[in-house]
Amino acid sequence: MGGDNTTIYPLDTHYREGSDRVLPSPDAASYRPFRQWFPWLVPAFVVANVAVFIATMYVNNCPGNSGSGASKCVFRSVLGRFSFEPFKENPLLGPSSATLLKMGALEAMRVVHEQQSWRLITCIWLHAGVIHIFANMLSLLLIGIRLEQEFGFVRIGILYIISGLGGTLLSALSMQSSISVGASGALFGLLGSMLSELITNWTIYENKFAALLTLVVIIAINLAVGILPHVDNFAHVGGFITGFLLGFMILIRPQFGWISQRNAPLGYFTGSTKQKYKIYQYILWVLAAISLALWFTLGFYLLFKGVNAIKHCPWCHYLRCIPTSKWSCKMQARPCITSQNGDQIKLTCQDSGRFQMLWLSNTTETVYELCLKLCSS
To answer: Which residues contact 292 (CB under 8 A, 6 or more apart)?
Structure first.
């Protein structure tokens, strides 16, 4: 966590009152004041994400749902029903957008207007393809196992879920015409919690500034990746902020002086009574709790009021993508041209030129879903 050096100083030698006996100091190399947990929750999260991806590919059934385009399914001869959508539709080797929507992908309009708030959670367990899930699960193992060993499954489980929710909340506020999936918000929450853990437990670390610099560089590199096209950096930022605030609250450690006093054998004294936490730790806890409560309260209020945060923040779109000569940030959320006459709508796929006339009163699907089906057929 910002470096593996969490070495602490051993207990001081203390004299027993009225005696020449000395309380020997334990060996610094073997002394561990904090419990080391066996990590099982993070691997369970990985298994759950992989299982959901397999189920998603089963539901997707590219050969069965593509009609005459079944021959374009990637690795059809090897994977059969589990083959991937054509690269043109999904370059990450995964299912179609329509399938992701069916399985619980985040779409802000459904959350706001169709009371499908559960999508804020279900989208955390969905991934757009093999490349997507491999990158996320590898990161989860590298980051999460260490944190679970140090702090236990309860605190890391809370961090993962609430950070993921914070990521999807900001994503829903900022990307209302697109769908979003992935555990990136939860992963960035773990990164954010590592930073706040380093700050709140500052006196524990020996190489403080080296650990801080290392962690800041890792976070900066990961956030920088989010400015590339087709990456939901709003989920990254929302998850990071949520995890950063939560870290001050649930990853706080007691001071070593208090631990030394508590573990001293009966009959020995260690001077004045030590406080379990320092004043600055209490202050950070209170400020983080207030900030987290305000963030979620305001975020959900704005979401269910249908507010599009991007319209009120002219520079925020740069968090999602920075245009360069190498790529464009212009993304067509619905690759269809629509024209409506009363209750009848005409959809025209811009890529293929196919069109379809529909009566909206006779379908329960959204224009987004209908457009995806038309363009993928």
So the answer is: 242, 245, 246, 249
Q: Does the structure show a pLDDT above 50 at 12? A: no
305 or 35, which is more confident? 305
CA atoms within 13 Å, Cβ hemisphere of 372? 19
pLDDT tens-digit map of 38-74: 999 999 999 999 999 999 999 999 888 876 567 789 9
Active site residue 236: yes
Per annotation, catalytic residue among 184, 196, 260, 376: 184
**What is the DSSP-derived secondary structure letter of residue 162?**
H
Buried b / exposed e over 304-321, threshold 16 CB at 10 Å, is eeeeebbeeeeeeeebbb
Does the pTM exceed 0.85? no
Q: What is the amino acid identity at position 163?
A: S
How many helices and strands, by DSSP H and E, does the chain display?
15, 7
Catalytic, out of 14, 127, 132, 236: 236
160: Cβ–Cβ under 8 A, 6 or more apart, which residues? 45, 144, 186, 189, 190
Cα angle 160, 162, 163 (rounded to 5 degrees) comes to 65
Q: Which value, in Å, is the radius of gyration of the alpha carbons in the chain?
A: 26
Distance CA 55, CA 317 (A): 34
